[in-house]
Each structure stands twice: as structure tokens, then as C-alpha cells.
Amino acid sequence: MFRRILASFLFAVCLAGSLSAVEHEVGQKEKKFTVENLKVKVGDVVSFPNYDSFFHNIYSLSSEKIFDLGSYSQGQTKKVKFDKAGKILVECAIHPGMKMTIDVQP
């Protein structure tokens, strides 16, 4: 009985540890992303704060993660959770030169 309880407890601890997501930051500054390439794990979250005095609209049409954060101004932050492995191209709809890649690893 004790072994079964201990095994269940250890399984729960391991499971909880594997489910903890990490939050990463990719800022928007001077019409550029502050990171060009980012590696994250499945389940991680990326925040996209706007440090510029004008609007940005961050989006991705990559099949592994399609999203559109809409236009938002300086001081605002929007977040995306990445739940599938793959390479994600991230762009700004307002500033075509803004591009970055997020490599989501299993």
C-alpha cells in the first residue's frame, strides 16, 4: 500500500514538473523584434510587449500556430501560448520588415 501511494506521489510530482510552462519575452522596438530567433518548448508562452510609440499588429500564418494579436499601442503586451512543435514565422502586419522565427520544440 505504501509503495503504491509513494509511486502515485512521485508520478504526480514528475507530471507537475513537466507541465510548467516558461514565459519568454519578445519586445517590439524601433520597428524590429528584440529577438530574431527564439527556441521555446511546447506549452511555453511568449509575451510581445510594444516599446514603440506607435502601433504594432503581430501575427503568424504558420500552420503550426496561426494567430493575430490585433493592433496595440506602446505599453501594451499580448501573449501567445505555443502548443504544437514546429517553426513559426512571426510578422507585423503594419511593418512588413519585422520578422522573426520561433522554434517550438517538443
From TrEMBL:
Transmembrane helix recorded as keyword: no
Pfam family for this entry, one: Copper-bind
Signal peptide: 1-21
InterPro entries: BlueCu_1 (IPR000923), Cupredoxin (IPR008972), ET_Amicyanin (IPR052721), MauL (IPR034242)
Protein keywords: Copper, Metal-binding, Signal
Domain Blue (type 1) copper: 22-104
Protein name: Methylamine utilization protein
Organism of provenance: Leptospira ainlahdjerensis
Lineage: Bacteria, Pseudomonadati, Spirochaetota, Spirochaetia, Leptospirales
